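Reviewers asked in the last cycle whether our approach scales beyond single polypeptides. To address this, we selected a multi-component target totalling 233 residues and predicted its structure end to end. The input consisted of the following lines:
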Amino acid sequence: QSVLSLPPSASGTPGQRVTISCSGSSSNIGNNNVYWYQQLPGTAPKLLVYRNNQRPSGVPDRFSGSKSGTSASLVISGLRSEDEADYYCATWDDSLSGPVFGGGTKLTVL
Amino acid sequence: EVQLVESGGGSVQPGGSLRLSCVVSGVTFSNYAMGWVRQAPGKGLEWVSGISGSGGTSYYADSVKGRFTISRDNSENTLSLQMNSLRSDDTAVYYCAKDEAWGSGSYSGFDSWGQGTRVTVSS
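The resulting structure, written as structure tokens, was:
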């Protein structure tokens, strides 16, 4: 059981907007930067959002991140079939003195 | 282009040892913290260990503390993970990953990943 809570699944149809929320506490999200990863089946994770809301070069602007208090969100706009993947949030946890990952959200594009 | 290439995975009996290595190219290795992240079959990502750019500071997940040792050789651009007293629940794909933050490191933001090396602990 991770200290970061993600919904186990999410879904949407092509073109839709999907939001994945990551819930934490004051010792992790509330006090540290949040990172989002996408993992396509059988591949290594890929950084989608860093430092709460920054996109690495090459990541489409359909992906956006935000943070408020002890929660963070990943929004995928204009959903595409290739977005079907597992998504993880991560941040440093001051109490654990180490980074933590959310359990992952499996996104299905219907 | 940054590249990370892991090696050293394999099958081992419970109680055994393995040493994973990760060779990094395309970046000034010593400027970045590095980490190991694992993924058990059908499970999510689990951070294992991290090390500062100089190698002077390291961190471990409670699940591996006292059994695993992370190290780096900045002259060889190599990150290592020595895994001792392996248990069945250490079975996973192990990824090495480069921190996104130049210098001090974020330890949770990894912008480059290796392809992963599989470790199987079974009798």
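Residues 38 and 46 of chain A are 5 Å apart (CA to CA). We regard this as preliminary and will revisit it once experimental data from Aim 1 are available.
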